[in-house]
Structures
1.
Amino acid sequence: MNQSVTYPKLNQFQTVSLIVGIIGVVLLGLGAMLDIEQFFRSYLFGYLFALSIPLGSLVWMMIHHVTGGGWGVAVRRIFESSAMTLPIMALLFIPVILATWGGFGEQGLLYEWSSPEIVEGDPIIAHKQLYMNPQAFLIRAIIYFVIWAGLALLLRSWSLSQDRTGNPALATRMRGLSGVGIVLFVLATTFAMFDWGMSLDPHWFSSMYGVLYMIGDGLITLAFTVTILSMLINHEPLSEYVSTKEIHDLGKLMFGFTVLWAYVSYGQYIIIWSGDVAEFTPWYAHRTQNGWQWVAVTLMGLHFFLPFLVLLSRKIKQNLRTLVPIAIWMIVMRLIDMSWLILPEFHESVAGIHWMDIAAPLGMAGIWCAIFIWILKSRPLLPMNDPNMEALILRGGHH
Amino acid sequence: MATMKAQPAVYGIMGEFDSPEALTKAVHRAHKLGYRKMDAFSPFPIEEINETIGPHDTGVPRLVLIFGLLGAAGGFILQSIAAWIDYPINIGGRALNIIAWPAFIPITFEAGVLSAAFAATFGMIGLNGLPSPYHPVFNVPGFDRASQDAFFLCIEATDPMFGGASGFLRQAGAVRVSVVEH
């Protein structure tokens, strides 16, 4: 592969990401000295946002290994490079673990269930102690990361050895692992979100919570992938092979996931609304008052109706010039969606959003992007020996 | 039917080709020369031909959108009339006005999907002119081979450039050219 090709837009984006990331992280560090409790809240929020894309990339990659097709092979290296950051994400989770273990003097910094005093005075949380305790939380986190990072590393190494050897058995092996991997991924991610997001309100539970997060992951990953693709497509080798068809397929998936997001979000709401049971309603009660209701309305309009109507058009989905602005829009909407899911646990009112709640996601996502692009550029951008490349080679790219 | 326009004497001119490549080439040339009212027939789908002369604006998407929105609105209004006006019923203390809208969304969604699906199915059938028990192209001898091993291009008489169609098809490499009678 021609190593001399450079990607000016990608390099520019990497520089900007790195600068934003460093500013965000420095601010977050300063914030930690001012208000350690707020620091951890913002850190968790930023972390869950930054984790969306590597997790979404991992599952999209596995879905593509199982189902095949030209769209996935065109962006597989983006998925792989993004999923390859999961070991780094594991290291970045250590502060959350420390917070539950009382590593910063105070116990129960982030999660009420990690404070013995609160547990003692609350029979409901006390009842859940077997599951919600710092030891079990740590062991489960290790299991999640072993599953995620293990899948990412294995699939990446097989994919790279496919580049070198062209051994046809590797495609079969990747497909086999992905079949099992998807099941493991869904289990791990569902429980991870129960642990890390849902248990912020230890009284409340919803079996749909994990799904909600995964659908959001899928959507932001497609949006991010389309954005990165637009920075590569005018250069070798993608310019030769990637055509309108692959872009259209990614656009269609984005459209589908926009609808799926609305379906799942509304599904959880209508079940709890209809049941009207005191155990479940407080979660929505928090999120529909003190200004949070306007965030909810904004999400309905701008995370669903607007992209839904725009993406109905085939022409818009086929053209990166029109698809990329929508993709960037969806990334911003995902951040607002995550704010609505996580931040009401920390701030009664929407006006209570702290500046660290903005610095954390920007800082972590910025640094993450810079690392991701560095991994992406280190290897060929198309898995030329994959059987799925045939469709792209036969057609040739003329976008 | 006094308003009916005078029909041309024939339906069109049909050229028969012996390979998909020959047909594709002829379609591209015809399109380049300015022929528009034409149709190709082959035993299997040929994507390139579809891109050149396939229907680009079928009208079905617009129909689906309109009926989808109408269906959704209908579903919502139907429930509103039933539950707020005709037979207001207190369910678990919920409001008897617009505040209770979340309960109506599943039916609204389903009614929208149902209506859109019907519009897509019947709109497609209707706009294709189906059911059509008679079509002139079947008058061409040997046309039944279009579903086996032969490839056809038919230039219709309504095309402004129809006058030169017969000569064009011969020149484009058709192995046989025949007139399509009504």
Note: Chain A has 18 helices and no strands.
2.
Amino acid sequence: MRKNWWKILAACLVSASVVAGFIGPVPELHILNESIRNVYFHVPMWFSMLILYLISVIYSVKYLNSGDIKHDIMAVEAVNTGIIFCFFGLLTGMQWANITWGEPWPNDPKLNGSAIATLMYLAYLVLRNALDEEQKRAKISAVYNIFAFPIMVVLLYILPKLTDSLHPGSGGNSTFGELDMDNYMRPVFYSAVVGWILTGAWVCTIRYRLRLLENKSNKIQ
Amino acid sequence: MKKISLALAFLLIAVCTAFAQDNTVEMATALRSSGKIWVVVGVILTIVIGMYIYLFTIDKRVKKLEDR
Amino acid sequence: MNLLREVKTLVLKDLILEWRSKHAINSMFLYVISTVFVCYQAFKTVDDTLMWNALFWIILLFASINAISRSFVQESQYRQLYYYSITGPKAIILSKIIYNTILMVFLSVIAYLTYSVIFKNPVGDLLLYFVAVLLGSISFATVFTMVSGISSKTGNNSTIMAILAFPVIIPLLIVLIKLSNNALQGLDRGISIGEIAVLLAINVITVTISLLLFPYLWRD
């Protein structure tokens, strides 16, 4: 149980954010009304996705340095888990946008950016499928992963700031901090983010361990 | 004179309250005051906690396989 | 200094090879002209400047993908082995990037000239538009060189190249189209400085990452 404390922490943080997110007071805003509570559930998806992609890049760098196939497995499983979170983020975002902005896919730089980032990581998976040899696949996909990551960061962080966006914090919209005047939302939001990131990391490690087991059983046969 | 000013003040207050009513944002206070929001919280909490218990069992299974 | 000399020799070699066969230039020239002409047949006139701009960038994008995707494949296995024995990977990727940049600048100037001759040219700020085209061709060259290096290691080249390159190039394309739109409408140049800075920064990042990563690709 000594090593599992962070998993329990993840469960507690997410549960706490659910309770506090539904019961706690929120600023009264036009258009958004009660749906401001979605901040506790929709935004953490994107944060966990980014952290998982970051883990993937770190392990790709590690792989290129060491040549250890375990690092490559970690990198690909982080991407796999990150894509799941990305789809959750897109789906929840579309539901939310449908009632507040009037359409599920408004032409917004953040939306388009995240769609392109999804394409980038799907391309990473396609690239992996195209290569058969294990060492070569690991090496080439690691190179692509590291090559694509900074451009994705530009895409998701810098471009929306340059253009008008419906999302807070860009194009003249007020930031999240200004909306949250009584600072009540902040702790709930951060605990939700940390909880979901830990959950994502947990799922990722489970997939990683399963992959290692698969590899082991393949070798024995 | 007094009557007129009183009437004016009354009018002013009425207009003010009317505007104030326009400015309020509709929130789901009824759901909250009747306590039924707790039902929703309970349902979602059940799902979330159930999911985490499920994750824990998967984790345990993987651990068993690893120890073998 | 040794690296610089090697890069210079390699770039010269590529240029001379190209000059002798004129294969890439001729085929690209024909490609650009025929696509522009197909567009002309389809649209006749493009009155909308937004559309004019988008069409130009699409033509340039596909022309450059076709031009650069061959940059590693055309080298035979034995020649690569020969390079491997005489130079380092850094010299090779740098020389490829420089050569592709030269090729792309040339190509985009040709594309721009033919395009603006066949369609009426509505550009408001010619210098700024030229800067946008130049920056665009440089960034196409830097990004596609590395991606073509990656995709040349896989078997089925052309599809993988497109799949890998498009997500990476789209953010650049968004900035480029915005910048060139500013130029088309002849807006004040101060507005466009942010976009130019972003483009330059992305180019610097891609070149450094290519320099860092190419040795791993090469050591195969």
Note: Chain B has three helices and no strands.
3.
Amino acid sequence: MTSGMQIIAALLVPLIGAIGIALVGRKSPNLREAVTFITAIALLVIVWTMLPGLFAGERPEITLTELLPGLSIKFQVEPLGMMFAALASLLWIVNSIYSLGYMRGNKEQHQTRFYVLFAVALSAVMGIAFAGNLLTLFIFYEILTLSTYPLVAHKGDGKTVASARVYMGILLATSIGLFLPAIIWTYMATGTLDFVPGGILEGHVAGPAVGLLLVLFVFGVGKAALMPVHRWLPAAMVAPTPVSALLHAVAVVKAGVFTITKIIIYIFGVDFLAVEPSTDWLLYAAIFTVIAASIVALRQTNLKRLLAYSTIAQLSYIIMAAALLTPMAEIGASLHIVAHAFGKITLFFAAGCIYVASKKTEIAQLAGIGRRMPWTMAAFTIGALSMIGVPPTAGFVSKWYILGGAFQADSYIVIATLVLSTVLNAAYFLPILYIAWFRNDETTPANNHGEAPKAMVIAVTITAALTLLFMAFNQPVLDLESQLVGITR
Amino acid sequence: MEILGLYNYWAYVAVLMIGFYAVIAKSNLIKKLIGLSIFQSAVFLLYITMGKVDGGTAPIIQAGVSDQIFSNPLPQVLILTAIVVGVSTLALGLAIVVRIKESYGTIEEDQIHLLDHKS
Amino acid sequence: MSIYQHLPALQVVVPMLIAPLVVLMRGRGLAWAMATATSMMAFIIAVSLTNIVLETGAVSYAMGSWQAPYGIELRVTAFSALLLLIVTAASTITLLFGKQSIDSQLEEHRQPMFYAAWLLVLAGLVGIVVAGDAFNIFVFMEVSSLASYILIAAGPNRKAMPSVFKYLIMGTIGATFYLIGVGLIYMMTGTLNLADMEVRLQEVQDIKPIIVAAGFITVGLALKAAVFPLHVWLPNSYTYAPHMVTAFFAACATKVSLFVLLRFEFLVFHQNLVEHVGHFSTFLIPLAVIGILLASGVALFESHLKRLLAYSSIAQVGYILLGASMATASGLTAGIIHMFNHALAKGALFFAIACLATQVSSLRLENLGGVARKMPWTMAAFVIGGLSLVGIPGTAGFISKWLLISAVLEKGTLGIFLVVAVLVSSLMAAVYFWRIVEVAYFGDAPKQSAELHEAPKWMLLGTWFVALANIYYGLNPSLPLLLSNQAAASLLGQLP
């Protein structure tokens, strides 16, 4: 199989899986989940077998169809996208294990629809990851929004639908209102939308227009949840936990920051941004979001909403690192995409375990839960430590590189932000850990619960282990992303 | 002289506006249709007028006569077609009015509105 | 002479001659079968004409071998080929797949007349498109209009009657205005042939009557094309017409009038009137923008599904006009391709609505709660059509939106405001469309929902055919793009 065909396969396999799931879904839930697993594993194999070629420096690409003259649907694999695809395909398997436990344990309705749309969303993620130009990326970006809307609105009652409307409304409005004009502007200025190392805009746009274009891009990519277009993320927390976990800790939000990083590196070009003073605001906007979201997180009493705001803050870490425009910071940004994914999915999984086992959603209710659900809470602890950035967790590695990047850039404000936000992270995560482990259990005898269903515990253990292992085994990612910096330098 | 000499055109404009007024101002559907017919007739007048050549007669070639002045026959032919169109429009309009009368019991526009809003 | 040379004439003659025969077909769907077969034949002719045009350029046909400008000329260009495809395809698909819907709305003894009128509409519309002279355009316009009043009046609700009456009055006024304009031009040039007009106008000294003529023709055709603010006849007519008629008309009727309008503006007036482009743009851009925003705004608060989409049609006419009023190659291309793409999107939407209507008693929004659970296929097709309308990438609507925005951006500062207008109205479209989706998918089921079933399979097939066409032409728009590029170029006189 050629690499070009592999890209197409990575897009089609989840779609075929979705059809398969839809076909067998009504008849047998077991068969349906078997199809999900087979699809997920097939996707993993396809994506991961592309890795060696990429390490060797290959950049496979394939052009599907020419949409308008000079504008085609085109895919190209490059290190950043490869990493994103590898991450999403790996976590999909873990998440499928988890969904199995969650959806059954919670006796959710419309499970077939859930699995079908999940597979479609994964296909869209692959499209985003491998997109070879902005247009292709935009198409799959919208497909991702549309296919996740029913997942967010899964429960279907009034409140959920209203929240899903916020989700959809913000993401669609920003993408059509800002992202699309930015793309068309770019196309009219440069005559191309291809991702080219070193950027395409230099020499075509100059002065304040560059800053304006960056505004359109950054806020147009609403999925990156830079304040003030972050409201959809807390709203989307009404979704079932597996959706929150995979989509809103990994796929959707990472698609956002991934897009922004890609635009910075391949559309604007790092060097071009560095000399263009009108684009400095991005760094400060990211810093503001980091601090503000952390402060809002401090005040949350609902566990999932707290995680949502923590996600917003962590996403802006990535944007901030990318906006530093130094090689080390770019590596840090891409490492943080992975590190945060492992940590945050663990946290969401744990929150879902708690919900399924005990129906508890508020932080105050968690008193003493560590003794009832030791595995879950141990995993939660690891995830929380990773968020704070304590070794030996994944968060430490990426923070190290971002900090290094900040020193390279002599950006003391970023260093100060990192320190402050670490303190804030600790301030909202440590109390939870304290309550869970050390406060007396006040659960009523009527609600006597133990550990969550096996499948869920297995899943959360796996992600927690990944969070720990990433500390030691981050070399492949580092190698891959060094290629990225190699070309931007 | 110039202005008055074009009295045919003035007549056409006047008839046109009378018809147009009836279409807009009358609420009785039949009267509206009458207005519409007047409106269309005005255009017929315009076409006939423009085809007229001073001193011209009907464009029939007679043996032995070669210096006759003819009026332009083409606008008249065109307007024959337009008259047919006008007649069919009127017929269809009347048919619809009959159907409206059958189902609403009235052909006054404001009353039809009232009936529609009630239901 | 081979039959191919007569195709432009056959395009009109076939449906027109078969129409009276259809009246004689009594009983058991014979009339339907005959009408459908005729329409299909028209479609095949349109496809072969398109092929010929793509291979050899514009085709000219002298009726009865009398040469233009004295004889009647039929002329098929890339632009007309595109319109022919839209019209005949819309008619064929709605007839072929819509039988159940028509049966449910019309008693059997009325059907032969209905189908005859349908074929007359078809003949009239294709006649307008192929006619090469101004007066024949008028005649065909009235043939199609009169027949379409009949089709709309066939709607089961008595409210169809007053709306048809309104349409008749306004349509006739529009046609008469057009006739006045043509008369004035004839007065000054002595010709009715459009191509000849362009040449002879250059010699006309006194230009005032021509300016008046341009005004009359523009207003008259704008009335027929439902350009804001002359759109008032459209919402009710579309709402109360039989569903299949709505689907047919929404796909092509107003576009044919726009086609004539563009031909006049660019072929006849463009070269000959000083500042004409300036007048045309300053006159139409505000109308287009206000129309887009206002109609979308009304659609936001409308709760009857068909009327909601009718208002959206008015907004879409504004898009076409906005592109055209740029008077640039890219703008015209955008406007013209939007004719095609909008036909696809609206066709899919109205088809899906016809499917819904076979099951639910009322098409008001409050009556459609949870309908998607009972009719998942219908609503899925509806969603695809809606996405195309909003302009989500991967659908046909995205192509036109992309082209439109790029064309508008060429206009500098004004362009930025126009882009904002287009984007705002896209978002409004997303909102009114999403209201329907939310109700259909998550609303509370109304009482009768227990008896709801999926729509008849055959109709679903048609709906999905159109819906998938939206995706196909969203991913592979080369054919409509090629035709609209050529059309724009020939309108601007860049093609021989």
Note: Chain C has a mean pLDDT of 88.
4.
Amino acid sequence: MITHNLNIEKPVLSIKELSVAYEKGGKHAVDNVNADIKRNAITAIMGPSGCGKSTLLRAFNRMHDLYSNIETKGKIFLNGKDIDNISTITLRRRVGMVFQRPNPFPTMSIYDNVIAGYKLNGIRLKKQQKDDIVEESLTDVVLWNEVKDSLFKKGTFLSGGQQQRLCIARALAFQPDVILLDEPTSALDPVATSKVEDLLVKLKQKYSIVLVTHNMSQAARISDNSMFMYLGDLVEYDRTKNMFTNPKDKRTEEYLTGKFG
Amino acid sequence: MLVIINNSGESNYRSKKNKLFLGLVILLSLLTISPVVLIIYKLIAKGIHQINLSFFTETAPDTLAAMTAINNGEIIPGGILNGITGTLFMVTLASFMAIPIGIMIGIFLYENTEKKYAAIIRDISDIMQGIPSIVLGLIAYLWIVKNVTNGFSALAGAVALTIMMLPLIIRSTEETLKMIPQSIKEAGFALGVPYHKVMLRVLIPSSLSGLLTGILLAISRVLGETAPLLLTALGSPIVNLNIDKPTSAVPLLIWDFYNDPNMVDLIWSSSLFLMGFVLTLNLISKRIAAKRT
Amino acid sequence: MVFSLVSGSIPVFNEYGFKFIFSSAWNPTEGREEYGALSFIAGTVITSIFALIICIPLAFATSLFIGEYFRGKWFAKGLGTMIDLLAGVPSIVYGLWGFYVLRPFIVDLGLSTQGYGIFTSGLILAIMIIPYATSISTEIISMVPNDLKEAAYSLGSTKLEVIFNVIVPTARSGIFASFILAFGRALGETMAITMLIGNTNAIPKGLFDTGNTMASVIANQFGEADGLKLSALIAIGLLLFVITALINAAGKFIIKKFA
């Protein structure tokens, strides 16, 4: 029933029969999803609110483990390795995450926010290493020139868009394999949004990106592949170009033409 | 540049540390609540056999009667009637003063939230809440015992308790009123109802459970107070319902029993009774509060 | 209120001036009367600090249990109810329990021959102030935004690291204030201390020495006091009033400003 036109070789993430329920034995918020995620590409997950797209995304770095009432079934493989066999500590460094609202740590400076992953994990670095990571990560997110003179100020005084790019830099500092973004621009204005979009397109040279968005035109603008989810089902998964021009499923077509959502 | 981080030894070590800390938290939490279990156990084990009908209907025995009973291997005769009546008398008296005044000040603060003097009154009330009860007892002593009743009295005790209850009632009144939607009040005014009627007929009834929670909490807070009563009501071997005479109270009786080696057995039953009373009120008020939200 | 306390303390301040605060003499014998509050101030501060030191790890652990580790679970709520019960136990009952249970236990341990003193009363005091510190800390800890915690988890942190790198820095002023308020409570506790501290009018020399606090000396000596001695006790009450008012104001200020 799932319309699959994609044949992905050596996927970075491979999802097998994944189901997630918010209470034991309860209704599946994500129901039996199978998909492969392409390396060095942007994969968008779309769908109306409540369709399970964020729930799916949060399964990729086992965020659901934090809440004992959530039940996850099925398997996910990162570079062919079952993520259940990787400790969450290691997994989450390999799979970075950026959240809906910018959430830099308010008690840390910009500099410390970038290397927060190292600090929080208790990894000691030499001053030179830290400086290098901070400069490289901030340059990657096109924030270096804007903040290089105020690195030791608190991250919270930045604008929303700058804060979100700082959060992306924080996720990049570990040089992860995958970056998960959960509606990263929904709290931003159009100018800041387009800056983040440009950035993502640039970042896919180095990273594999999975992007949850409720904004269809955003998916159309920047993603290579798109998933459409509806009521927990992965309804359609195709190259973005194909899906927007020639949706195979009626529900996808209705969503894309604005009949619901 | 990439720092090597795929080190499973390190991540094992951190998971272990994490689990160890959780264990420590659980251990310390259990240690924290252990006294309450131990205290209740001790009170029940030692106090329950002394609780009978005469415990509630007779006044406290004198030392001699208690000593005789102990020597004959009987349970101590008499009860704590003078304490129970004294406690009820003074708490009622204090409630009659504290509830109306507290609610009025609470309404005043709610109506004048933005004003500077309201903020000052709120701060004073907050700080009063932290003043040790024995100091409040001293104040009631200076005001009432020295100047009004010219001797230790139920009134002085009640005044001390009133000062303790006021901040709690003021705070809970204001907080409860704040939670009522503005539109309910406006609906009243829109019908042309005068201010005092809106207050009495609309606002206070719709905040009743919140007010009740505050009042019950305030009462349960003062029921077990001993120190301020020691300086004001002093204690009395007989049932007294005159506001200008010394009066006993359950905690005062416990203090007396504690100081009299012959009365030791009565300590536990009186404490059990007092605890039961205080904790019941406390839990009822928490239950009402929980239902409301 | 302040006025009546002040006017009640005038005689003793007239007699001794500020020496009253800095002298540790306490002699009610008629004709050779001498009053100073220093021993009681010292007794109060030492017991309260000792109680606070015991209280901090216990209250912190308990508020993590209720506000973070097991938030919303039935046994966390149960633990919260137990803490409420702990707060509801009257001071005099704590005193009795301390006298009949804790004190003999301390004698059995061989820590002290009589079991009275700073150590015993400090322990009881710690139990009494834990509920205040715990309930405020729990509230502050559970207010730390979830998305900050998730951000830290998404970087591979363990819960322990999230607690000490995200929760504690974010909630630190509130937690600090909760301990200040608990300390304020400790300063004024009366009955339990009166029953356990040993009631000697001298500056305590160690943890197992006896002493007196400002509140316990008032409770103990008020019955037989008149004249200059009464005035001295009222003056101690005034000092206690001022100190606790300042500490409370400071605690409330920190909570309002930072939380």
Note: Chain A touches chain B at residues 87, 89-90, 93, 118, 121-123, 125, 129, 132-133, 136, 174-175 (CB under 8 Å).
